[in-house]
Structure formats: C-alpha cells, structure tokens
Amino acid sequence: MAAEDDAGRIEVRRVYEDPRPEDGARVLVDRLWPRGLAKDAARLDAWLKDAAPSAELRRWYGHVPERYEEFAARYRAELDGPAARDAVDELRRLAHGGPLTLLTATRDLSHAHTGVLAEVVREPGH
After folding, report:
1. What residues contact residue 124 under an 8 Å CB cut-off, 6+ apart?
2. Buried b (16+ CB within 10 A) or exposed e, 74-84
3. Rounded to 10 degrees, what is the CA torsion of 97, 84, 68, 38?
4. Which Pfam families match (predicted)?
5. Distance between CA atoms of 42 and 27, rounded to whole angstroms?
6. Model confidence over 80-96: pLDDT tens digits?
7. What sign results for the dihedral spanned by CA atoms 112, 26, 16, 1?
8. What phi, psi does 125 have (nearest 5°)?
C-alpha cells in the first residue's frame, strides 16, 4: 500500500512490541524512557516528550480507570500549551506523510494517554 493510501492512519502500540513494516513513523510519546528497553531496540523515528501528560497529571491519574474521563479532559487541556501544540503539529505532519504509530510503555492501552493523543492528532487544527 502506498504511503498516500495510509496518510492519516494512526495506530497505538506498546513500545515493547516488535516493530512492523506497516508501523510507518514510530514515535514514542512518553515523558520517561521505557524501563528495560535499549534505545536502539525501540527503532524510533522520534521521541516527543512534550506530547505526553505532565508528571503532575500522570501522578494524579495513577492509571486508575475510574479517573480516565477526567484525566482525558485534563490532558486535552494540557495539549493546548505551546510545547504540546508543537508536538501535536509534528505528529500531524508525520501522519500526513503516511501511517503513524504512537508508542507508549503503558500496559493498559484502553486507559492510556495515547488514545486521547491519537484523537487530538486526527482533529483538524489545534
């Protein structure tokens, strides 16, 4: 499939999973480097720390599923900050060029920040 056909396709995966050819641009969107992962093993195209939730928000959330909706709202608000806006713009640029895979060390992808981030990147403008 040509890159144009995949433009805008955004996947969310764990950084510990083996890279796949269909991943396209592989971007780590965690603030901290994943434990136990060698930098060369990650095979990243970029590491955008500013796309991740702040340390304060991450601590408050603590991956407690009951807090997810509030976490998502607070995280969206953080993504309006200047540094995060630049990171989101970079992710949009990468997604425009072909498939984009957002990578995180988080185990529970259904309650991870990456789902919220993927939604924001898909939205026009910011």
Report:
1. none
2. bbeebbeeeeb
3. 70
4. DUF488-N3i
5. 10
6. 998 899 999 999 999 99
7. positive
8. 65, 180
DSSP H helix total and E strand total for the chain: 6, 4
Q: How far apart are CA 28 and CA 12, in angstroms?
A: 10
CA Rg, the chain, in Å?
14
What is d(CA 31, CA 51) in angstroms, rounded to the nearest whole number?
8
The pLDDT tens digits for 23-46 are 999 999 999 999 999 988 889 999
Determine how many CB atoms are found less than 10 A away from the CB of residue 31: 16
* Single pTM value for the model: 0.90
* Closest by CA position to 29, among listed 98, 119, 96: 119
